[in-house]
Amino acid sequence: MVVLSTEFYILAILCAFFRGIDPIFAKRGLESGGDSMQSTFQTLVVRTCLAWGVLVIISGGGNLLEGISIPTILIFIFAGVIAAAMGQLSYYKGIDKMGASVCATVTNSRPLFAVFLAVVWLGENMTISGMFGVISIVIGVIFITRSKGGNITGWKRSDIIYPLFAAVAFAAGNVIRKFGFMEDTAITAIQALAINDLAALVAVGMFGIIIGKGKELASGNRESYWNFGLSGVCVFLAMLTLYEALFRGPVSVADPILGTGPLFTAIVAASMLKKIERITIGFIAGTLMIIGGVVLLSSMS
Questions:
Q1: What's the rounded Cα separation, in Å, for the pair 226 and 211?
Q2: Domain range spanning residue 180?
Q3: pLDDT at 289
Q4: Beta carbons of 256 and 115 less than 8 angstroms apart
Q5: Looking at the domain assignment, is residue 1 inside a domain?
Q6: Domains in the chain: how many in total?
Q7: Residue 61, by phi and psi: left (phi above 0), alpha (psi -120 to 50) or beta?
Q8: CA nearest neighbour of 253 among 105, 109, 111
């Protein structure tokens, strides 16, 4: 049995916390007049500036990507386009349609895809407890989709495609990133994050221009700018702690721990979004099922 460090679990839990409160600020920004395209682009601007700013400080003005091979850079560019661009666009669209609490929790079906990809592609081991953990998480998601929680105005069942697509994209991104860290141990977490976010920013910007929304990417009002900015800071901290965790442990354990994110989302939403979202008993039951699944999946190590 592989013994993982305390730092690994602390980093993974911190990632879950920041990822859990990110949709709260995103939802507030969306409710103040923004849309999912603006949310994704503006949070990426904040994330990219923070990542490259920290990298400049750490490097002391030297070569920011020193010692990193071109193939490794391409790996993290690919991860950025898949997860931070495509996944994030779908995630914020889901938050807008369904509500922060429901979308965040449905997106946490991600461990199902992350564990599958990690086992098949990276050769990580699957145990019986891990299988029960995945099942528990999936049942929890089903509970939540039937809970009538989320937006008080309601949402269509077809809207579930947005968080599910985000779940697949986030899972694939995490596995691709872990593969990049395995292939090139010279790259640091902040370098990987900077490459990832810049690639995503360019991808979302180009997509917005192609569909005729280029001028709208930077539009908004004071409240939407403020909330999208805070969302960007939360995602930056979530991604930084995630990357550091991936240095210390397997995807099949790190990624499922993020399943506790909806717990933080629900707690904060109950106070900050109580006028626009409802927290039901079914939602709470589903969240507890997901947490139980996380515990089982974490025991795989």
A1: 26
A2: 6-298
A3: 84
A4: yes
A5: no
A6: 1
A7: left
A8: 111
